[in-house]
Amino acid sequence: MTTQPTPPSLDRQAPTRDTAISVRDLTVRYPDCPPVLRDLTVKIREGERVGTIGPNGAGKTTLFLALCGVIQPTRGEIDLFGKPVKAGEFRPELGLVFQNPSDQLFCATVWDDVAFGAENMGLSPVEVERRVSRALEVTGVAELAQRAPHHLSGGQKRMVAIAGIIAMQPRVVIYDEPSANLDLRARRRLIDFLQQSRETLLICSHDLEMLLEVCDRVIVIDEGRVVADGAPQEVMGDRELMEAHGLEKPHSLIPHTDSHH
């Protein structure tokens, strides 16, 4: 684990993995506001499952928007699989699953929603059908294909939104609070799915127990900077570190002999 003031290492993983995302000295400032991200540097290698945690307002969502090319950084560089990310440029290698799945579901049927992104990639109808069928199957919602999205439960909507991204076959998937508002059964289904995912994952969540189950690495962001980077049990098990950045040590990492306070 690395913590500030020591800069986070860009080469903490074995060199056998290709770099999926490289962020160097990234600064983002909105008009008439102090910087939201401040010289943030991080590298994510292909195949990693990285949890992103931090207090509200730390800059996590802004980082995701910059990675997707939605906003133009004030300064710094972002590379996705070795190619610079440019604001406004569509990169099919990366998909973003919104915190609220209803923001991604707007078609008459689940099938149409899942097909929307693939169709807009200019794929043939045969290829679109193949991708949609696979995405519905791997997310466990194939039986919902002809249902209206607004008639689904929260957990079903979440998996349909994920299916729409999976149908585009990105190499990196960003999840913004994926377990928010899910009941226990839907949450478990989501965790099982994420554990089996083949894509590189970047997951922002306040559900620290979920991140412990899914992720092999966690980065802590606060005040626009990476303040810790390492194994989930090591980072989130450091009570002093967690509390210093507005977080709590996960209950499962607290020994039974501890007072839990």
Summarize the structure.
Helices cover 29% and strands 24% of the residues. By secondary structure, the chain is of the alpha/beta class.
What does this protein structure show overall?
There is one protein chain. The chain has a 7-stranded mixed beta sheet with strand order 1-11-10-4-9-8-7, sandwiched between helices. The chain has a 4-stranded antiparallel beta sheet with strand order 3-2-5-6, covered by helices on one side. Helix content is 29%, strand content 24%. The chain is globular. The chain contains 8 helices and 11 strands. The protein has 2 domains: 138 residues, P-loop containing nucleotide triphosphate hydrolases (Rossmann fold, 3-Layer(aba) Sandwich), CATH 3.40.50.300; 71 residues, no CATH class. By secondary structure, the chain is an alpha/beta fold.
